[in-house]
Amino acid sequence: MKTHILNITKLLIFLLLTIYLITYLGKVFMPKYWHDDLQGAIYSVKGFYEIPNNTLDVVFVGTSSINRSISPMQIYDREGITSFNYSAPSARVYTIYYFIKDILQYQKPKVIFVDTCTFFYEEKESEPLRRKSFDFMKMSKVKKEMIDDKVFENTTLDKISYYFPLFRFHTRWNELRIRDVRDAHKRFYSINKGALISGKINPNDKDYSYMKPTGKKVEMQSYSLEYFYKIIQLCEDNGIDLVFLGMPDAIVWNYESSKEMEKLVANTSSKFIDINDKNNVEINWHEDTEDNGWHLNAIGTTKVTNFITDYLVQNYDFTNHKNDEKYSKWNEDLKRYIKIEKNAIESIKTKIKQNEKPSKK
Amino acid sequence: MSYTSLKFLLFILGTMILYYLFPKKYRWIILTISSTIFYVLLSGKLLIFAILGTIISYISAILISKHEKKKKLILTISILLTLSFLAVLKYDNFILSMINPIINLIGISIPYKKFLLPIGISYYTLEMIAYITDVYRKKNEPEKNILKLYTFFIYFPKIVEGPISRYGDLSKTLFAENKFNYDNFRKAFVLIGFGFFKKLVIADRAGIFVDNFFSDNHTGILTIAAIILYTIQIYCDFSGCIDIVSGVSELFGVKLPDNFKRPFFSTSIQEFWRRWHITLGTWLKDYIFFPVSLSKINMKLNLKVRKFKFKHISQFIIIAFPLFFVWFINGLWHGASIKYVVYGLYYYVLMMLGVLLKPLLDKFVKVLKINTKVFSYKLFQILRTNLIVCFGMFIFRCETLSEVVTLTKAIPSTSGRIGLFKLGLTGADFAILLIGVLVLSAIELSGELKINVREKLEEQNLLFRWIVYLLIIFTIIIFGIYGKGYDAKSFIYGGF
Questions:
Q1: Which of residues 89-128 of A touch B (CB under 8 A)?
Q2: Is A308 found in the same domain as A166?
Q3: Global confidence as pTM
Q4: Do B473 and A160 touch (CB under 8 A)?
Q5: Domain-embedded: residue A359
């Protein structure tokens, strides 16, 4: 009997050691998707968990569109309102639902702004994009629920790989760098509070033509619609104001998407604001985009953020946290953020100057 | 459910827990149930053929033991009945392709039909024939419990790729009151791990290159690389699977027969086939070679050829006749096409040439004073054997015989030549392959030197053992070809 107990103990220790190593190596092998040392997809999700609990007034949730359109630090700079941009590339409505559920485990925001950019996509996201949503989320009951949700059509091996990413990313063995080991231990604290401040510029020559009616039929897939209503219900249940935002996007978004969103939101407790409407924010598609109309650059981000800050000031009565000792870290971050933003804007301006083509505006 | 799938690992875990929780006397019933579930998961309703085969084997064995005078007739009928399933399900189109041209002359044609092949039919059919014949030869008593017989035929670790087992041997441990043994568990774990290493790290990696080469109709010098890599692939695939299933079986205390004994250290093709797919070789020897050798026709032939002036010619004829059937059936067993028959006969012709030319070669060695006792000569023999085997594997891999000819002719060709790294494997992949093959060779060489690596490992201290176990686990997890981005290949021998 004694031998049996000893053998079982040894076996258990060995199993625990193996599981620990699988988990640790999973962190090393997982692609980090950083844009640079301070921002990128990994910061937009992992950075959220670095924020102390119940300290956010507002949260922005969605895709790379909202990630590059709204800067929480600019809002803080102007009004002392704390917010975070929790987003992942091409996150679909069902992923956003789980993002919000995840957020509510740690924060009690007054308002949540949801990016509608992918709401009318006819197909689900590709595996690499999905991984960028799943992999950086902290393991919790929400994430477990998400892994098991049939909408993601995860196979058993997929599910296991979300718990142990090594099984998915083991193929990276020949591209590993020292940085992968270093970043496995790194805490992805986001100075930008999730936003990506881009210093790139690549114009879109079609201007606002995408917002002209074409008669094209746009509708939400049934599975997306289900989660759209789930998001509304979730926010209602938690007493949170929900605002859907049509993020500036000259490639994916169009007039019909905007009208369809208006219709969908009409009979709900939520609101819809289309930033693509020139009356709200006027984007200069020749100068304010980093990639021909998909995403905004730092100049575009400032325009949209100003609009959102005005909206928050006009509709809510938030406390300015700037002088609150509890938020001193935000003030420290702000100093560093201003430099990041300044560099990005200078970089854009230099590129505009270098470009001989005169701007239309 | 592949042997390398997660489902299979969970299936083993579940079966193991139930097996050792059950009373010792009835533990084998858990294997009956799990084997049935495993079979149904893989082949569904086609289990019926295994059940029918079991019933035929069971009844005929009892009848043979009871009716001494009619036992030959019963044996013949039962073997024909057992073979009929295999003939119809696997060889129907092959047989029809032979018959139709003849009956077409009188205006008749039988339509071709493709049947679903029950998993393991090629293996359990041979086991059934061996069981009935062994009872006929009084090597075994007929089994009274049909459920035990059924369990033996469909025992899940060996059903997909063998090894082809004998009832008399396997039943000793299959139905024994096996106790859980921690040391055996550890040894089994190492064997399973080594099997996974061979299959996922080496075989499936080599398979990427091989599949791309053959599917994209490449030619030229790369054919040689494809042949070598295919030989590595098929060996690691098949022997890897056998290691996995043997290890799994050891978890239940059931010892499967050895199927490989370091075949690439063979100095002749005869020796190669004594070390490669051993259970098929011994089956062919026991149930084809001996019966044909002892048949009346062969006896008469023997009497006639013994009178020949040249002794070695008469000896050649004496073995050539039964061996023809051995190699013909060996080829045919692998697949229902002329290509496989040629594959079997390729070895037959080479072996017969060896026998025929032996006096000449012996003289040649004597005249040139070649020392055949030295290492260099042995190395030459090993390389020669491997060369022959590689070409045999090439025949085995090509779709048709004309492809063998076309590709062989085009080896010196430079047209459409592409780089070695354009067929799915990077330089790093080749490095992993090379290291994998070196590790495998080192372990096999230890075996040749009578060092049992598994036993030696178990003698080591806990820390060292754990490091080795972890190395095995993480080599497989990190360097294995599985999951998204890779199409896991099914075991090559599972199709036979």
A1: 127
A2: no
A3: 0.85
A4: no
A5: no
